[in-house]
Recover the amino acids of this structure.
């Protein structure tokens, strides 16, 4: 297959970036629609994307199924899959899970950094795991074909989601905590559980998630990936850059603070520099995925392993994750045929 798929970006989208996606050969990307937006605000974001799809149909189109990755490759375009980094978009209404899935939402985090109605974020002092509503929403996400994403959730909540979900889950953008101790990065127990259950782990290039931050070297990053692959295998690993290209620093306040606090929550990184940190010099934008391929080869990955890491694992995960599970009546009808 040799697909190139990015497990998450939150860029300030423009024609320039869409053309860079094509120059970099990106077949598909999971894009963030939601940080703290409610349902109506989420629909407004989809409306904006609809205008972009209409304006640049030769560059991008909305992805709904795994087959759309193949369509993107065949037509020289990038498939855009929608996701939410917070469950605020479903408000307190489980019925909106299916509504948003029909509108194209294919990923939803059960939390951002804080406690949500569903689970506990990684910045809370006490992690209480999945709530009653959280268990119900996970089951509904499983049913309709929406990926449970635990990238910003606490340890107990993440392990609870892994146990409770009937379908494999994802951590779309994070790194190992024992490589860089950001609160967002994941323990080896979580990574091992993802490997054992058919989930996905996307390695992040966001500087606050990297050893030495913006100064992280390509060899260090790729050696870290190799260490995880040696420990757990390559079958569940991918890339989730968390690229925030061309976003103004003012967006960081919305990401961190939303509507839950009157003060500024600086979150990860220094309180003296609340804006976006510069990306590593070996990955500035979507045209630099070739550097990552070369780095993976340098640390010993073979061609098939690199293909898996750069997108084929994501493509396989999409194929098993995006479809709706058959209802009992549908299953009976199929059995009778």
């Amino acid at each position: 297959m040799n697909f190139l798929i990015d497990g998450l970006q939150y860029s300030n989208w423009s024609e320039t970036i869409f053309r860079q996606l094509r120059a970099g050969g990106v077949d598909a990307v999971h894009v963030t629609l939601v940080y703290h937006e409610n349902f109506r605000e989420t629909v407004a974001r989809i409306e904006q994307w609809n205008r972009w799809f209409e304006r640049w149909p030769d560059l991008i189109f909305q992805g709904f199924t795994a087959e759309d990755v193949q369509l993107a490759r065949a037509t020289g375009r990038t498939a855009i899959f929608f996701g939410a980094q917070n469950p605020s978009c479903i408000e307190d209404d489980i019925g909106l899970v299916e509504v948003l899935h029909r509108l194209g939402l294919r990923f939803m985090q059960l939390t951002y950094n804080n406690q949500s109605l569903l689970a506990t974020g990684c910045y809370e002092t006490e992690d209480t795991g999945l709530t009653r509503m959280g268990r119900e929403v996970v089951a509904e996400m499983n049913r309709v074909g929406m990926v449970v994403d635990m990238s910003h959730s606490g340890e107990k909540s993440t392990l609870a989601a892994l146990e409770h979900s009937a379908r494999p889950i994802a951590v779309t953008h994070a790194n190992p905590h024992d490589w860089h101790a950001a609160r967002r990065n994941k323990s080896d127990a979580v990574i091992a559980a993802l490997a054992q259950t058919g989930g996905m782990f996307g390695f992040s290039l966001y500087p606050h998630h990297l050893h030495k931050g913006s100064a992280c070297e390509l060899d260090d990053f790729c050696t870290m990936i190799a260490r995880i692959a040696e420990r757990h295998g390559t079958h569940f690993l991918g890339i989730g850059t968390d690229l925030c290209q061309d976003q103004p620093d003012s967006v960081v306040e919305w990401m961190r603070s939303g509507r839950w606090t009157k003060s500024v929550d600086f979150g990860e990184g220094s309180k003296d520099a609340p804006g976006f940190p510069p990306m590593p010099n070996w990955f500035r934008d979507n045209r630099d995925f070739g550097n990552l391929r070369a780095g993976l080869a340098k640390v010993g990955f073979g061609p098939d392993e690199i293909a898996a890491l750069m997108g084929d694992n994501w493509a396989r995960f999409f194929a098993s994750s995006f479809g709706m599970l058959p209802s009992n009546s549908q299953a009976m009808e199929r059995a009778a045929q």
Notes: The beta strands are 5-9, 28-34, 60-62, 78-84, 105-109, 147-149, 170-174, 200-203, 237-239. The mean pLDDT is 94. The chain has one domain: 5-336. The domain at 5-336 is CATH 3.20.20.140 (TIM Barrel).
